[in-house]
Automatic annotation (TrEMBL):
<protein>
    <recommendedName>
        <fullName>Actin-related protein 2/3 complex subunit 5</fullName>
    </recommendedName>
</protein>
<keyword id="KW-0206">Cytoskeleton</keyword>
<keyword id="KW-0963">Cytoplasm</keyword>
<dbReference type="InterPro" id="IPR006789">
    <property type="entry name" value="ARPC5"/>
</dbReference>
<dbReference type="GO" id="GO:0034314">
    <property type="term" value="P:Arp2/3 complex-mediated actin nucleation"/>
</dbReference>
<comment type="function">
    <text>Functions as component of the Arp2/3 complex which is involved in regulation of actin polymerization and together with an activating nucleation-promoting factor (NPF) mediates the formation of branched actin networks. Arp2/3 complex plays a critical role in the control of cell morphogenesis via the modulation of cell polarity development.</text>
</comment>
<dbReference type="Pfam" id="PF04699">
    <property type="entry name" value="P16-Arc"/>
</dbReference>
<comment type="similarity">
    <text>Belongs to the ARPC5 family.</text>
</comment>
<dbReference type="GO" id="GO:0005885">
    <property type="term" value="C:Arp2/3 protein complex"/>
</dbReference>
Amino acid sequence: MAATEAFVEADNAEAIITRIEHKSRTIDSLLKHSKPVESLQVRIPFLCHIFSTIKRVLIVIVVHIALMAIKDVGGLLSSLDPEYYDILMKYLYRGLSTGDRLTCDQCLHIHEKLTERAGLGCILRSLADTVNTV
């Protein structure tokens, strides 16, 4: 158990909870067998991964709430620094992936206005960007 496992990204809550329960049982087992070093080798990377996942999910939720509250898209885009257009486009695609009708309608409306302002290159850059993941 000294080697750490590669973490697999999970998009749904059930898979994340299952992984947490599995790792918790592994850590408990190592502690019961008086292997605190091995326990830490499993625990520390796992906790870092959990906190990172929670942070990403919370950011997506906050951005989703903000996108749904937007009434003046033109005002949003004029106040937003153009360097953030590509990241906004990534969040719009994330919103579209929910399949929720209201969310998709709002995201498509913003997408249309953003594409008019930023051009088609914004779409390509957001799809090709591997650094800013949402």
